[in-house]
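Narrative of activities, Objective 1.

The group set out to show that a structural description can be obtained from nothing but a protein's sequence at a throughput compatible with the screening campaign. Below is one input-output pair from the validation batch, recorded exactly as produced.
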Amino acid sequence: GLVLHDVGIGIQALGTRNTDIRNSGFWNAEMGISLSNTRTSILENLTFVNTSLAGIQLGNTEVVTLRNNIFIPAPGSYAYAIGSATSLLAQAILDYNLYDFGDEESGSGFFAGATNDLRRWQLEMNRDFRSAITNADLANLDLGDFHPLSEYGRWTDSGWTTDGITSWAVDHGNPAADYSQEPEDNGQRINIGMYGNTVQASKGSIDIELYARTMNEQPLMVTQEDQVWPWVWSAHLLDTNEMVSVQWSGDCGETWTTLTNVNAYQEYYIWRAGIEYQTAGGRWRVISQSNTNIVDMSDTCFLVRWLPPAYLKVYPSSGRIRFDWQGGVQGRRYVVEYSDDFGQTWVTWDEKYNGPAQINRSNFVIPSGGSQLKYTFEDRTSYLRRTRWYRIMVYEE
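Output recorded for this entry:
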């Protein structure tokens, strides 16, 4: 319940065990909290505003819990100070945090030398999956009012008021944490920051919903070199035992395949985009198993391009030339062209030679489904020219 401001280090713990710091704010400090040679510390529901060095400093700590915290470091400052010992965070219980690093020019971040890309941060640390980098939207940083804004109700010295927006800090804390002190409507979930599970917690929505948080950028392309993506969602007011299906679509939402079934409050799934996912219309969604009207999907369709080493096998078959080709993208149209002058000019087949059998189609779409990624083509006119060259091009509409 403290607010410590205009200090060097707000709280320093040296050689302690089971240190528990909650529901406190650190404002205009050099360092909010410093832990050194500590064990099993819990730092939850804290707010760090304009810390000039870092919000939390870790030195030779073991099993530290860092959850439900808001970090708004000063420009050029960081959420954490750990030196070069990234293992201090890699072994921490780290999740449900809100990071407000300002604009790209501010130079703020997780810690010195760390990426500020949330996805890469999560994958490198293998934790913090339910956290967010976003504007904290607190009432008044200059005056030390760190109540999160809320359309549903925010505490002030003169009573409750409402705002035009709702902070991400509202109803996004650890779903297993106690929220019983928060006033109704509290979304049945603890708020992030120093007012979480207090009578001054900002009020939340009464809507039952799922919200797909990741892979909403446009345009977005997933490649072989960049193929692991956390699919993260938020669950609000669902039953604690509610199960959801995490599903994939390779045709922009026309059909869906279930990849896993998990508790709604798991709130993330690690997706690895192998070759079987290649498509021009990728999309994912999370859907309630008890009520399929509770569902949300990524905002836009994305491209998955996972190209293996070039694969082309040419062979004779019943006096004609066939070739097998692998490397297409599901949902994208291709055209097969040929050259009879060693690549000087390229032409397509007359329509009478273009099909009707799928194997003779020189203008085709790779359909969805891993089993369709290899395309076999037979040149019906190849018995006329045994030195013919072939190429496969993306069809320009």
